[in-house]
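Tokens in:
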């Protein structure tokens, strides 16, 4: 059944599963969860695992060019999982259908995680935490308003903080949302307390 689900003959009618959210909100973890669940993910493996994301980033560089109209690669991604940062969701083609898994995390934790990542790269932010927090909140409000009005998108908001406390519950709900025979036992093993390092 699972193999038939992703057969080429059914590709055209399938949705693209999009993992999205703010940077450092748990999108890479969710990509790993879905990959462990048995779903094919779209990644070019250019950005390798590092100290900030030991399990990998699961990104595809082409997604960064969506705002420039580079979206043809998405038509071959039906039935697969793609990571698209929340700022680029509006550039997804309207003639495709999507199941969006949107990661939410406490903004102070996102800021702490970003600071740690910048420190590891020997970089510094050019704006204050208060300014960045306000930008994030305004962006999230706008993108949620936009998503609610997209008939070709179903959205499942996942609370990162709660998921870390009860991964099995959330992994089971993901399988129900996607209506796919996912390997929940393998999925629930991905959220790791040892990698939950920027708590507030």
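Residues out:
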């Amino acid at each position: 059944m699972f193999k038939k689900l992703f057969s080429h003959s059914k590709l055209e009618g399938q949705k693209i599963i999009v993992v999205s959210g703010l940077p450092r909100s748990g999108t890479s973890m969710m990509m790993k969860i879905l990959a462990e669940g048995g779903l094919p993910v779209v990644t070019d493996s250019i950005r390798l695992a590092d100290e900030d994301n030991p399990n990998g980033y699961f990104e595809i560089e082409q997604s960064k060019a969506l705002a420039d109209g580079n979206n043809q690669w998405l038509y071959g991604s039906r039935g697969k999982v793609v990571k698209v940062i929340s700022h680029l969701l509006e550039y997804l083609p309207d003639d495709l259908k999507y199941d969006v898994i949107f990661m939410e995390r406490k903004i102070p934790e996102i800021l702490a995680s970003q600071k740690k990542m910048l420190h590891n790269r020997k970089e510094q932010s050019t704006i204050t935490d208060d300014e960045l927090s306000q930008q994030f909140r305004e962006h999230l409000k706008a993108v949620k308003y936009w998503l609610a009005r997209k008939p070709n998108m179903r959205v499942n908001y996942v609370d990162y903080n709660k998921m870390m406390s009860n991964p099995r519950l959330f992994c089971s709900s993901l399988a129900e949302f996607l209506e796919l025979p996912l390997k929940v036992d393998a999925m629930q093993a991905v959220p790791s307390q040892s990698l939950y390092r920027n708590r507030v």
